[in-house]
């Protein structure tokens, strides 16, 4: 029957389950059932050092079983001996180790019985060992002759195995054993033949029983070996005693097995055990033992032997080891053999064991029992521990089978099957429970289950019933059983919901029914959201030694947050939570940080997120990039005079493909040990045809390059030598250098070592005067220069240099033009004139000297000048010469930095590479007045609420006749905003102080003072100050100078002033509001401004801007004069302070004034500032 329902949008197929579940579930203890043995002892040893011995037997059943014991097949009463301690509701008993307990030794069996039947345990053997002892006996000495065979018997006492036997002397030193002297498996010591050094009186046999913690010793034995033979044939007291020093050589004779055993014997071994076959022989010389398998092959090509070949050992014996083995004892006198017929037997093992179960009334029963073994085991059936009487048993019974039909409740019983052969007995029990009960649902009612979307849900309904119950599941309020392919009912009644969805949440019911009755339980199912993980970054590529941070982003159901856990794995192996490798790898919850990444860090990193219901993984493959490994296995092939092929095997690229290979070479003739680059091979090629130079003993190495960098060089190749040849090229960079007028020094770049091409390298130099028909002059030299003397001054020559070696000459060389040595110019410039530009700058003109008077390459002109007197005071000056150099063939130059209102003299000379020519006649010129420099200082001498008194010093340089001073002031505030500027003109040039009135109380002012000449006013000196608040003036001096607090206040003000000065200095250096640029904007220098506008338009108007148009070529040509006050002091050399016309920019850039202004401004305040 099949129908379709639509519930919450899901189509559900309905079906009906009928299951037989009784046999699959263990019978609940609440149901009446037969006894079952749950725990029992096995063979046990009663060691004398134990306090007691426990014999276990536990069973379950309903009603709870009672226990009985048999010993050696007879009933055994646990109450018969007070040393036996029993437990309630248990078959286990304890034997206390008091007195003699030998009577407890035997084989015990436990029987557990209730009204339904009896269960029987396997036999439990209790072994009560006696303390092993050697008997006290007197052992007669053994007198033997050299070469005789001797056996020293040990006869160890019986005890619990394992048994270890040792032969030692009285000092506990082991008796040496070898092929001649050895111990048998039974512990006897065998001498194949004795020697005199075998004589001793302390042969002791020790028997060790480790499980008994006992070692016992046999009485010492004496062995005397003699070469003396006694002759006493007549019995006369004078009988002769003769020495017989002979050797009793004889063929081998087997002592184990003894000759009485015949030529063969049978050996039985248990399958899976160890086979030990022993042969010990006597004879002289000492026999050698060997083993063969007569029937079939040995288990191994080389059989395993012990005891110097006298024991053949086979572990884990199988049926294939069965057969005939032969040992052979041989010496030069003959041989002896013995055959062992090995039979492999085994104790009983089950093929089929009887299996019980729960049966309903009216069903049929078949129990099977089959066992194998060698010999074949006998089978015996028992019912409730007693042999079955076939006459009264209502079923059918045979050796391997019991059957019953139409079972009834009274047929419940325990059937036992016992299989026995001479190697042991095995027991199997089958509980046949015939029941007729309504279903029992063993799962608790109202269980709550949860799973996540997409997983399977398992709702349990464990049922016990007889007859078998029909089981069905329903959902929510529906009475129809669940169907569709997503629902599956397992044999144990569990409902499996596959590929769960949110709609599967709800209440479910399990129904079980049989002919006796029915039961039901409910279960609740919640469906949670599945856990999702993402690892970022995905598959990163990281440079070796860099760091990487992997982050695992997780989403999981909020109900599962308390059980959510994150872990990390690398290549499937979990990473420890604590930092690893010295903190290089750090796990912190959802992040994995790896610093200084190594190559071995590469791999797949997996983030594992788990909750109590599900788990999820996300992975990211970390790829570590590194420089390639060095190339390997360099090989040379295709050998030619000028080429060879180099091949190699690339190393690992470490995830960044090789994009280039650099081939380097080293030669050991010219520069041994120095590696040089030969060529580069693009891409990942691993072979290259190398072009080589002659006469070089090469070896090569290769460096691989990828996007990360270069590999280490490979190991060098074998050396490869090329034959010599004539040069392929001539020297380059041929030039002429001369230091004297009548000589010519020709120089050139020598050939590199690999360009020599052969031995005996020299240079053939050829030269002749240009334009003169004459033969070439030639000379061959080994160095790379040649000096020719007695040449005309500064004459052009044609020059050739050719490379030559022992195998020939290089190609025809090119001709180079060079000049012979220069001399000083012999003429001075003429027509020198000076054009005064302003008070500090003049322009000089001259006519250059003729070319033939230069006598060399004209390098330029030098202008020298010196101050003769000041026009201000008429005072003459000691001449201090200054000069400027003007490179090239030119006829004018600008001379900057002159003192205003002064008289100067000036000369001009030409110079070449040889040196300076004569100077021109001096020219006299005067500079006009200029603007004054800053006053030396500005101080505030007195202050009031509305007035201050200012005092200032004379300018450093007046640069003309002073006409007076301009005094300016303006209000400023803490935000550096300024008020309008007020001017006061002081026309008396002798006035050096002034009182300003009409100021505002408690106001900060900035004051400016600048000196003036007829040319204009110079740059100002500045100071800042604060007027006094109204009403405070009178109290300032009212006896405060004698007060201690006033002295402390003054100290504090001094410290505050120092702090303010420091802050001010820092801020001004950072380019604050009151920079030099601002001062120049507020108080422009009219003379400098006019010069800048008319002549130096390309100059920078601020020292904070870069200079334009400065001639870099002048930097290296300006030389210091004899004057310490040369223009080098102004930084014209390396700072490029000259314009293209040679004019000096420093005088107009404000660089010197800036230092003096800022060191004066705001730094000499003499009164406190009041807020």
UniProtKB/TrEMBL annotation:
Residues 630-725, 730-823, 828-930, 934-1031 form the Fibronectin type-III domain. It comes from the Eukaryota. Its main location: membrane. Pfam families: Bravo_FIGEY, fn3, I-set, Ig_2, Ig_3. GO terms for cellular component: axon; plasma membrane. One of its GO terms (molecular function) is cell-cell adhesion mediator activity. The chain crosses the membrane at residues 1045-1066. One of its GO terms (biological process) is brain development. CDD domains: FN3 (cd00063), Ig3_L1-CAM_like (cd05731), IgI_2_L1-CAM_like (cd05845). May interact with L1CAM. May interact with ITGB1/ITGA1 heterodimer and ITGB1/ITGA2 heterodimer as well as with ANK3. This is Neural cell adhesion molecule L1-like protein.
């Amino acid at each position: 029957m099949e129908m379709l329902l639509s519930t919450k949008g899901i189509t559900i197929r309905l079906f009906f389950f009928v299951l037989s579940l009784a046999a699959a579930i263990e019978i609940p203890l609440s149901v009446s059932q037969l006894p079952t043995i749950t725990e029992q002892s096995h063979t046990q040893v009663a060691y004398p050092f134990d306090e007691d011995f426990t014999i276990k037997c536990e069973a379950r059943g309903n009603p709870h079983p009672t226990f009985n014991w048999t010993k050696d097949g007879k009933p055994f009463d646990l109450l018969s001996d007070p040393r036996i301690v029993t437990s309630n509701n248990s078959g286990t008993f304890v034997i206390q180790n008091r007195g003699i307990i030998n009577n407890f030794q035997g084989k015990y069996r436990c029987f557990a019985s209730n009204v339904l039947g009896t269960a029987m345990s396997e036999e439990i053997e209790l072994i009560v060992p006696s303390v092993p002892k050697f008997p006290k006996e007197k052992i007669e000495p053994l007198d033997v002759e050299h070469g005789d065979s001797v056996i020293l018997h040990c006869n160890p006492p019986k005890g619990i195995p394992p048994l270890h036997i040792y032969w030692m002397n009285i000092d506990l030193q082991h008796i040496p054993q070898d092929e001649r002297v050895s111990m048998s498996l039974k512990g006897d010591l065998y001498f194949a033949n004795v020697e005199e050094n075998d004589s001793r009186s302390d042969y002791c046999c020790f028997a060790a029983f480790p499980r008994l913690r006992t070692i016992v010793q046999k009485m010492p034995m004496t062995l005397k070996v003699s070469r003396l033979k006694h002759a006493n044939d007549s019995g006369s007291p004078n009988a002769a005693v003769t020495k017989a020093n002979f050797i009793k050589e004889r063929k081998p004779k087997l002592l184990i097995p003894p000759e009485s055993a015949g030529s063969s014997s049978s050996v039985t071994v248990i399958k899976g055990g160890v086979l030990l076959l022993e042969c010990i022989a006597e004879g002289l010389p000492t026999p050698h033992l060997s083993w063969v398998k007569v029937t079939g092959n040995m288990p191994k090509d080389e059989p395993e032997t012990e005891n110097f070949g006298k024991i053949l050992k086979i572990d884990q014996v199988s049926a294939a080891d069965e057969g005939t083995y032969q040992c052979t004892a041989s010496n030069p006198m003959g041989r002896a053999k013995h055959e062992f017929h090995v039979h492999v037997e085994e104790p009983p093992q089950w093929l089929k064991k009887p299996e019980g179960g729960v049966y309903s009334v009216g069903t049929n029963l078949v129990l099977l029992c089959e066992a194998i073994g060698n010999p074949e085991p006998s089978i015996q059936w028992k019912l409730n521990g007693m042999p079955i009487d076939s006459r009264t048993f209502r079923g059918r019974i045979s050796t391997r089978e019991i059957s019953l039909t139409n079972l009834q409740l009274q047929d419940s019983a325990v059937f036992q099957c016992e299989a026995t052969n001479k190697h042991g007995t095995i027991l199997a029990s089958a509980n046949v429970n015939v029941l007729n009960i309504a279903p029992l649902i063993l799962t608790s009612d109202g269980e709550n289950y949860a799973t996540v979307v997409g997983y399977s849900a398992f709702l349990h309904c464990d049922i016990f019933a007889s007859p078998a119950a029909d089981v069905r599941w329903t959902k929510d309020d529906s009475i129809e059983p669940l169907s569709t392919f997503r629902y599956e009912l397992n044999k144990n009644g569990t409902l499996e919901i596959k590929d769960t969805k949110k709609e599967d949440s709800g209440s479910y019911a399990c129904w079980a029914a049989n002919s006796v009755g029915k039961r039901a339980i409910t279960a609740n199912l919640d469906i949670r959201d599945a856990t999702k993980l993402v690892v970022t970054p995905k598959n990163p590529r990281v440079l070796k030694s860099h760091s990487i941070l992997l982050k695992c982003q997780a989403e999981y159901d909020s109900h599962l947050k308390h059980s959510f856990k994150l872990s990390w794995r690398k290549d499937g192996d979990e990473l420890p939570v604590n930092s690893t490798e010295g903190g290089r790898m750090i796990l912190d919850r959802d992040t994995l940080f790896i610093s200084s990444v190594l190559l071995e860090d590469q791999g797949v990193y997996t983030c594992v997120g788990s909750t109590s219901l599900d788990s999820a993984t996300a992975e990211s493959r970390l790829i570590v990039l590194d420089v390639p490994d060095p190339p390997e296995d360099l090989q040379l092939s295709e050998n030619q005079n000028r080429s060879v092929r180099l091949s190699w095997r690339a190393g690992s690229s470490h995830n960044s493909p090789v994009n280039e290979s650099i081939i380097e070479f080293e030669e050991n003739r010219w520069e041994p040990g120095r590696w040089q680059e030969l060529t580069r091979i693009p891409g990942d090629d691993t072979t290259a045809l190398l072009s080589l130079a002659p006469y070089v003993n090469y070896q090569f190495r290769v460096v691989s390059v990828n996007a990360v960098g270069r590999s280490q060089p490979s190991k060098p190749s074998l050396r490869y030598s090329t034959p010599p040849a004539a040069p392929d090229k001539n020297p380059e960079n041929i030039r002429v250098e001369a230091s004297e007028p009548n000589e010519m020094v020709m120089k050139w770049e020598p050939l590199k070592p690999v360009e020599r091409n052969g031995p005996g390298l020299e240079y053939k130099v050829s030269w002749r005067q240009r334009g003169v028909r004459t033969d070439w002059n030639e000379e061959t030299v080994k160095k790379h220069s040649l000096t020719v003397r007695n040449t005309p001054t500064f004459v052009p020559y044609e020059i050739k240099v050719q490379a030559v070696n022992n195998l020939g000459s290089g190609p025809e060389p090119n001709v180079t033009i060079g000049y012979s040595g220069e001399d000083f110019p012999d003429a001075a410039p003429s027509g020198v004139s000076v054009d005064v530009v302003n008070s500090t700058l003049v322009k000089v003109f001259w006519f250059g000297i003729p070319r033939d008077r230069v006598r060399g390459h004209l390098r330029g002109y030098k202008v020298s000048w010196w101050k003769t007197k000041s026009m201000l005071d008429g005072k003459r000056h000691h001449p201090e010469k200054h000069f400027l150099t003007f490179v090239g063939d030119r006829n004018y130059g600008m001379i900057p930095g002159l003192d205003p209102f002064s008289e100067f003299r000036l000369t001009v000379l030409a110079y070449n590479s040889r040196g300076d020519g004569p100077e021109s006649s001096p020219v006299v010129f005067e500079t006009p007045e200029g603007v004054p420099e800053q006053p030396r200082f500005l101080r505030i001498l007195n202050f009031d609420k509305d007035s201050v008194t200012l005092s200032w010093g004379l300018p450093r340089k007046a640069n003309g006749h002073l006409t007076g001073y301009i005094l300016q002031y303006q209000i400023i505030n803490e935000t550096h905003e300024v008020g309008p500027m007020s001017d006061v003109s002081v026309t008396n040039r002798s006035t050096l102080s002034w009182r300003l009135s009409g100021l505002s109380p408690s106001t900060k002012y900035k004051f400016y003072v600048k000196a003036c000449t007829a040319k204009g006013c110079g740059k100002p000196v500045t100071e800042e100050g604060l007027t006094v608040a109204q009403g405070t003036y009178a109290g300032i001096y009212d006896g405060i100078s004698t007060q201690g607090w006033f002295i402390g206040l003054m100290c504090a003000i001094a410290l505050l002033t120092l702090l303010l000065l420091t802050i001010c200095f820092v801020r001004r250096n950072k380019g604050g509001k009151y920079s030099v640029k601002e001062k120049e904007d507020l108080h422009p220098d009219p003379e400098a401004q006019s010069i800048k506008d008319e002549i130096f338009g390309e100059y920078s108007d601020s020292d904070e801007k870069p200079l334009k148009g400065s001639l870099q070529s002048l930097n290296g040509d300006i030389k210091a004069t004899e004057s310490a006050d040369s223009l080098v002091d102004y930084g014209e050399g390396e700072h490029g302070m000259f314009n293209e016309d040679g004019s000096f920019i420093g005088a107009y850039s404000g660089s010197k004034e800036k230092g003096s202004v800022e060191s004066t401004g705001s730094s000499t305040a003499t009164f406190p500032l009041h807020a």
